[in-house]
Amino acid sequence: MWHSYFYQIQKKYSMRVSKKDSLIIRLDGKNATKTRKNDFLNNYPGSFINSMEACAKYFTKKYNCYAMLGSDEISFIFPKPSNVINDLDKEHDDHSNEISALFSQYYFDYFNNIYKLEKIFWHAKCFSIDKNKIVSYLKFRSNVIANVLTTYFLIKNNSYRGGNDSLEQRIEKCKKSQNYFVLKDIQNGVLYYNGLKIDLNEFYNGNIKELDIPQIEEIPTIDLLDF
Question: H or E element: which one contains 130?
């Protein structure tokens, strides 16, 4: 009796994901934006965004999936959920809590093996969406990322005055800064597919176009302490 009772409670809080629809696993860095140590703008070996991109490249190639990243969040989109589900669990468990728990541990290990400034823990959420909603989901997360990064940039630039500015107004303020170049290419998020960094706007139009990525030493950076 007790076995059945506790199993039912466990099952109540464990949602099954669809193996036919696309699977989303979104990870958010726990308290990552609350410390000044983490730099979400500059891309150099071992930086926060560089470590995120390394994870995106590795996992999207491993699972033939997409990843959208920006600020302290990354979403993995699996058009074929079985690619990741079967790899994570030999029993092919399709419950969201099991998938998110296992995947977040893999991500934690890979990310923190690269990023050495401080150990980052990750919240994970897992759910299914219709395959036709992938672009809509990316646009939704892109808007969230843009809101966070433009606000972050203005704060670091001592140009944030609070208030009710729209995203478009904040973007225009960011563009007036001589340091806008570090934000421009990541402002709306960075998209990876199958190990490749691809053009986000081209993807919205139904195309897969790999971006020309400069050598890491050619990417300009700024000293956030000078903001």
Answer: none
Strand-pairing partners, residue 68, are: 75, 191
- Asked if 36 contacts 30 with a C-beta cutoff of 8 angstroms, the reply is no
Integer Cα distance of 190 and 118 in angstroms? 23
Map tokens 């609070």 to a residue: 162
| CA nearest neighbour of 25 among 71, 65, 52 | 65
> What are the pLDDT digits (tens) for 33-44?
888 889 999 999
Q: In Å, how far are 46, 52, 118, 134, 208 from 141, measured between CA atoms?
A: 24, 16, 25, 11, 19
Query: Quick one: tokens of 221?
Result: 């950076």
For residue 46, pLDDT over 50 is answered with yes
CA nearest to 62, candidates 43, 50, 78: 78
Domain 15-30+41-137+190-212: what homologous superfamily? Answer: tRNA(His) guanylyltransferase (Thg1) (3.30.70.3000)
Q: Which residues contact 54 (CB under 8 A, 6 or more apart)?
A: 110, 114
- Distance CA(153)–CA(224), nearest Å, equals 10
CB-CB neighbours of 222 under 10 Å: 18
- What percent of the chain lies above the pLDDT cut of 70? 86
Q: How far apart are alpha carbons 128 and 82 in whole angstroms?
A: 12
